[in-house]
Design brief:
alpha/beta; 7-stranded mixed sheet; 6-stranded parallel sheet; binds zinc ion
Length: 357
């Protein structure tokens, strides 16, 4: 991406001659397009340009630093192994990491596909490329018994949902409303169901995405193309929750307008999680009286830690049949059509677009 709002270009850079001791050069097999990439392209976060975007990636190890013997979980690593990794790198010693124990808000955090200009060596720091150079300190995970499509279909949505739902806590038997049926919404649904939610309601569209939600076990879906106004959706949620509203409401849309609607969908004393706002999409009017009157607890959650990636991979291995994330991968593009892949995501034309270099 040479600049915000510009079409992507193919550029060539030299591969690194030396691989640092704890680094690795990986040949990219597949990289996912995430909604955040659309926000980045629109300039909603300050990032360097030119940049190779792509923070959901699977590849095989092409060259390995001599000191990198094992992955994050301690499994041995060799050239040719298939791996994925945490896109975010945390320092572990800043005030937020060490004192406040908020590592996802690490003051020195950097992330592949977000933080590094492709003009700066080692150049290859994003997924939409033939290679990526994994810097020392990257949390790498060797993949076995789980498909590439499942890993990329789950993408950063699953780790995001695992972290968010860990923060908010789902009680066994809870009713949960999920606003949004994109990858984050479906991942939140999978994590909520496996955490013991008994009643899950997904609000979204288009119909194909709601079918996926059904496949993931959603008890009810509310089609925003059919229930076009807020009052109608609220009435649906009330009727489906015995008139009380839901124990937990999870925002997975990224549009400020849905927040006040979501507050109203909570039961008295309920919990609300803002999970979908990775880009700064601006403000929307909301009535704080609702938070006071309903005694709501409102949570935020940013990105994830490597341990969430470890949990996500284990989850896909063990519950992959119940939650077939590979079915999200709907559109595949070669590297020179990456911009088209971004456009399909931006226009909500795909459940998940991927780049296969
Ligand atoms: Zn993402
Ligand atoms: Zn830190």
């Amino acid at each position: 991406m040479p600049e915000f709002h510009q079409p992507f270009e193919i550029r060539e850079y030299p591969l690194p001659e030396e691989i640092e001791g704890r680094a690795a050069l990986v040949r990219v097999e597949m990289a996912g397009i995430c909604g955040t990439d659309v926000h980045l392209w629109k300039g909603q976060l300050a990032i360097p340009r030119p940049i190779i975007l792509g923070h959901e990636t699977v590849g095989t190890i092409e060259r390995l630093g001599e000191d990198l013997k094992a992955d994050w979980t301690g499994e041995s690593l060799r050239v040719g192994d298939r791996v994925t990794w945490s896109a975010g790198m945390l320092c572990g010693h800043c005030h937020n990491c060490a004192v406040l124990r908020q590592p996802t808000r690490c003051l020195n955090r950097s992330a592949y596909g977000i933080s590094f200009s492709s003009d700066d060596p080692p150049h290859f720091s994003g997924g939409y490329a033939e290679f990526i150079y994994l810097r020392p300190g990257t949390a790498i995970f060797k993949l076995s018994y789980v498909s590439i499509d499942a890993i990329i279909g789950a993408g950063c949505a699953l780790v995001t949902a695992i972290h968010g739902l860990e923060r908010i806590g789902i009680g066994w038997g809870d009713s949960v409303v999920i606003q949004g049926s994109g990858p984050v919404g479906l991942a939140a649904l999978a994590v909520a169901k496996s955490s013991g939610a008994h009643k899950t309601i997904v609000i979204g569209g288009p119909q194909a995405r709601l079918e996926l939600a059904k496949e993931f076990g959603a008890d009810d879906t509310i089609d925003i193309e059919k229930f076009t106004d807020s009052a109608a959706r609220l009435l649906q949620v009330r009727q489906l929750t015995g008139g009380h509203g839901a124990d937990v409401v999870i925002e997975c849309v990224g549009s400020p307008a849905v927040i006040s609607e979501g507050f109203e969908m909570c039961r008295d004393g309920g919990k609300y999680l803002v999970l979908g706002h990775y880009g700064d999409a601006g403000t929307a009017p909301l009535n704080p009286h609702v938070i006071t009157r309903k005694q709501l607890t409102v949570y935020g959650s940013w990105a994830s830690e490597p341990r969430h990636m470890a949990l996500a991979i284990d989850f896909l291995r063990k519950q992959g049949e119940r939650f077939p994330f590979e079915h999200l991968v709907s559109h595949r593009f070669p590297l020179d059509r990456t911009f088209e892949a971004l456009q399909t995501t931006s226009q909500w034309a795909s459940s998940k677009s991927v780049v296969v270099p």
